[in-house]
Amino acid sequence: MTSTIHGPTIPDVDRMEVADPVERPGGRRANLRTAVAQLVRKPVFLIAVVYVLFVLVSAFWPRLFTSWGPYDTYPESAVLAPSLDHLFGTDNYGRDLWTRMLYGSPLTIKATLIALSIAIVAGLGVGVVSGFFGGRTDAFLMRIIDVLLAIPGLLLALSIVTALGYGTLPVAVAVGVGIVPGFARTTRAEVLRVKTLPYVEAARAGGASWGRVLLRHILPNSWGPVAVLAVLDAGVAILAIASLSFLGFGAAPPAAEWGTLIADGRNYLVTAWWLSLLPGLFVAVLVLSLNHISKTLQELNR
Amino acid sequence: MARYIAGRIGQAVGVLWAAYTLTFAILFLLPSDPMQLQLAAAGLQEDTLSPQQLAALKHQFGLDQPVWVQYWQHLCDVVRGDFGTSLSQHVPVTDLIGQRIGQTLLLSVSAAVVSLLAGSTLAYFATFVRWNLLRVFLTRLPALGASFPQFFVALFLIQFFSFQLGWLPATGTQGATSLIMPVLTISVLASSVLAQVLIKSFDETLSQAYISTARAKGLSRSAVHLRHAFRNAALPAMTILGVIVGLTVTSAIVVETVFTREGVGKLAQESVLSQDVPVVLAVVTIAAAVFVFVNLVVDLLYPLLDPRISHTGGKVRTPPPPLATEGVAL
Q1: How many angstroms separate the CA of residue A249 from the nearest CA in chain B?
Q2: Closest chain A residue to B33 measured between Cα atoms?
Q3: Is residue A254 reached through a cis peptide bond, with omega within 30 degrees of 0 on the bond before it?
């Protein structure tokens, strides 16, 4: 996208951002500071953030939080109930379930990140192109999105997994494609909204090319709701990935994603409820935290 | 009006066709070697077969023809109601699904009904009660319900009601009692999604001027809430009826697997595990058809229920589904 300045005598009017009263010098940073100050005062929000951070940190440095190995078997201490030694109890081989959960985290987190990247790149791309160009391009792209929405997400994911086979990567791709439509629609709506605002018109009148307006004005001002949706969709992706690996389409054993651990524990539900219910709770709290963070950010955005 | 109906039906058929085409493309174009995929599904090893056998099988699967010929043939078959033969079970796919669809329909329909009732009741009370603490609790409840993985809810219910209390059978399809927990599992998610949308809609409706007018006339709070607010708030929420039904259908996959119910959902799970391409294609197509059909019915009913919508020139516009539904359902 090349920048063609129509009125060479006008020096970069679009950089002065005249039309937006909030955007005074230093305004963006000051806004951010008040936003952070508001957030710190919300205890539930803080707990949610701390929990998400804990899951991330423990995924990459599990040694910090456990002294057991994920594949160490101790037949003498098989199927122990949760205790201080074994937070989530032990499975039928005497493996510490808490440790296995933490060592399973990178797989699920990796899959979530891949799924989100696909959704963001494709969704943002389609949404921006659709909202920005409008007309026939918009109609055509939105028809495709409608079709994607007509196939329930999990079933679309299932057909992709059938075609690609099992494993972390196919599951991630399948889930990512399922999230694309929502992303595309939200981005499009935002781009459409921002496109009509006076500062876009001002920038155009000041001689900025459409490419410049898109990159400098429309994108930075429309990413808020998209970012909120990204956090929300991280939760959706984790749920979907856990469901798919629960159904048996995830990584091959002995590597264990969260969903696989829960599915394994299901066979011992009568005698050892903790083997499936505690990992399930671990996932549920994570999704709940992400939903809460997304909701708080959404309220802040308004 | 007739033009509107015809247009909507045409659109629905078009979307269904496109959904089928997309699924076909995923299943037939995405695998690097469709032949190997289908051989594996049929339980055969490529290197144990002679070239003649291989060629015969290739012909049997229709893979010796270009993809678009295969596509055309499959499409014609589907229009006639023939979804081919299951690769792993060697039975016509329609028979396979026909035997099981009753179970799934029973589950999905009961779950949809329970979700509608539970979701509306929750939204009604969440916006009606005056005690702030309870109000906040009820408003937050749907977000909680939508966060729990369905397999977790299902396993929790089994552990509690079957193993601790011994009230309900843990698995199986025998009798009405075996239906309670699966329906409950699906309803937790579906009613949460519905309640989220309804509560938002209620909040918008309650700030309208006609609500104040009704109150000023001397009507009681409950009368205003039920007769004026509820009916107006429920209208926009109708647009997500398709999403709710879609949820009950896709939830059947996880729920039927956990509760070992012999339905289409479990069939879908088994077919993906055995990479049984025709069955997966059929299940996805049927699910998309249900979803498209429900949306069509909602679209056609909407102008009848909401007289404010004009149908001038055959153009009737139902509002797009509220954005609150995005990101909740996959």
Answers
A1: 7
A2: A163
A3: yes
- Set of chain B residues whose Cβ sits within 8 Å of the Cβ of A232: 327
- The answer to whether B99 and B92 are in contact (CB under 8 A) is no
Structure confidence at residue A14 (pLDDT): 43
pLDDT of residue B114: 93
pLDDT at A117: 92
> Which residue type sits at A89?
G
Within 253-272 of A, beta carbons closer than 8 Å to B belong to 259, 262-263, 266, 269-270
Q: Which pLDDT score, from 0 to 100, does residue A114 have?
A: 92
**For residue B218, how far is the Cα from the chain centroid?**
43
> Token digits for B76?
């014609």
DSSP calls for chain A? -----S-TTS--HHHH-TT-TT--TTHHHHHHHHHHHHHHT-HHHHHHHHHHHHHHHHHH-GGGT-SS-TT---GGGTTPPP-SSSTT-B-TT--BHHHHHHHHHHHHHHHHHHHHHHHHHHHHHHHHHHHHH-HHHHHHHHHHHHHHHHS-HHHHHHHHHHHH-SSHHHHHHHHHHHHHHHHHHHHHHHHHHHHTSHHHHHHHHTT--HHHHIIIIIHHHHHHHHHHHHHHHHHHHHHHHHHHHHTT-SPPTTS--HHHHHHHHHTTTTT-THHHHHHHHHHHHHHHHHHHHHHHHHHHH-
> How far B285 CA lies from chain A's nearest CA (Å)?
8
The phi, psi pair for A110, rounded to 5°, reads: -60, -50
pLDDT band at residue B316 under the 50/70/90 scheme = very low
pLDDT of residue A17: 42
Sign of CA dihedral B28, B32, B34, B37: negative
The domains of chain A are located at: 110-302
- What is the tens place of the pLDDT at every residue in B53-83? 777 777 777 777 777 888 888 888 888 888 8
Whether the complex's predicted ipTM is more than 0.90 is answered with no
Report the C-alpha gap between B182 and A273 in whole angstroms: 19
Class of the CATH-defined domain A110-302: mainly alpha
Nearest C-alpha of chain A: how many angstroms from B170?
Answer: 10
**Mean pLDDT of the B205-234 span:** 83
Query: Which residue's entry shows tokens 């708030």?
Result: B233
- From chain A, pick out residues whose CB is under 8 angstroms from the CB of B327: 179, 182, 229, 232-233, 236
At B257-287, the pLDDT tens digits run 888 888 888 898 888 888 888 889 999 998 8
Parts of chain A with a pLDDT under 50 = 1-25
The pLDDT tens digits of the residues spanning B145-175 come to 888 888 888 888 888 888 777 777 777 767 7
Contacts of A159 in chain B (CB under 8 A): 23, 26-27, 280-281, 284
